[in-house]
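Researcher: Good morning. I'm working through a list of sequences from a screen, and I'd like to move beyond sequence-only analysis. For each chain I'm collecting a predicted structure so we can compare shapes side by side. This is the next one on the list. No need for commentary yet; just the structure.
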Amino acid sequence: MERNYLVVAADGAVRETLAGELRKKGAAVTLAANGGEAVRVVQSVALDAVFVETHLPDMSGEELRSRLVDARPDCRVVLLSSFRLVRNSPELLRYGNEDFLIRAGQVFDLLKHQDDARVAAPSSERGRQALMQLVDVLVGLLELDQRQFSGSSHLTMKLGRATAEQMGAGTDMVLEVMLGALVRNIGRVGVEPESGDPSDLSEEERGQRVREHVLATLRLLEHIDFPWKVLPVVRHHHERYNGSGFPDGLRGREIPMGARILSVVDAYVALTSGEEGPARDPETALAELVRRAGQEFDPEVVEAFHRVADQWFAGRAAKRRPRVLIIDQQDQFRRLLRMRLLNEGMEADEAVSYEKGLESLLKNRPDILIVDVDADNNEAFQLLQELQQDPTLCRLPVVFSSQRPSRQLKIRALRQGVDDFCGKVDDVDEIVARLENVLIREAMRAEGETRRSRRGITGDLENLSLPDIVQTLTIGMKTACVSVASEERAGKIWFEN
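Model: Good morning. Structure tokens for this chain:
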């Protein structure tokens, strides 16, 4: 694959020397004479790397590097100093025993080695994705016969991932939370079969059963050499923020962040599924998380989960599952998309033609419509116009899809009012995510002023040490008043933002 590089140097001879060596290696090269030109090129052209000769007329090499990285974070910037420019300059004196020279042609060889490693990286990413999907499927099969828990691990995994991403967690931590969510309860197969409804158990009996599940899960997993910190996430997700949890009585930030995230999400799923007494509606479960923040849960994680819940459950709380109508002639695409939609907690209807689709949506109105435009562009746009002119259907979200969408077709569809345009060759999960985003936007618009604002939460931190309290409030930029008292003296500490 041809590489695309930018060479930035004030001296034309330096530019041509370096560019010539790169072109000999088969690379495409763009030239710039100063930092301003380089910034404009990087903003408009996709590049593999930028070579910057440090002696520029308008800015330093380091300043340019910073601006280029801000403009395109995935682009590598290499600072070079031409020996031709410094050999007769006093700057030559700043080079010492720790500085080395490299020939222009060898710079490309070094970068090519890194590029080859980059090419191999996607296979590793595919491996991680395949692992996640495989574990998801296997755990789903284990839960099939457990009506109470069917699908709960998949839901916990999705909410855990969203919460970790909301908190800015790195790739590895997100993966640890996802895997931990999927395997946290596989110990159920290692203990005696459960009988009766878990909601009929006393709090002590439920606690004992949870302990048995956690220990059984750890026994099943402890021999696996994970390349990620999955076991600590599973082991400690029943610790409590005030130190009263198990198995090790960790408290506050002693508990791994992944475990703190999984603890909140796991509790929410348990509350809404009926695992902790009678099943509660989403708003009541969220209120319970807030009540236990600072005692059982990390307040920052609870607040991040609230932000996730605002999007995730927009328009869904205590309501039916969203319904998607798929109008498409391709059986394979319809069935694959329907399977993924069902797995994401939505319902899906199918129609093989525009006429059948119109009949279906008039009989059982969906929440969103995804229409194939390959069969007949004109009929697809006619259907869109009919929906827009109908007073009861004009607000129905419509997404177009195409096997080979052209730019002109996309622009025409978006200008005529479709909510999104998907390519069938895209990842099916991406298509589902696009549909979910449209549904979320529609739900948020429909709720309008009735939406409850979640700008912050309250929590009890009295069981934490003062340093832990200060750290929690500072990291969260909280406004709070902390009362401190001893036998003889008392005082208050105010925190603002």
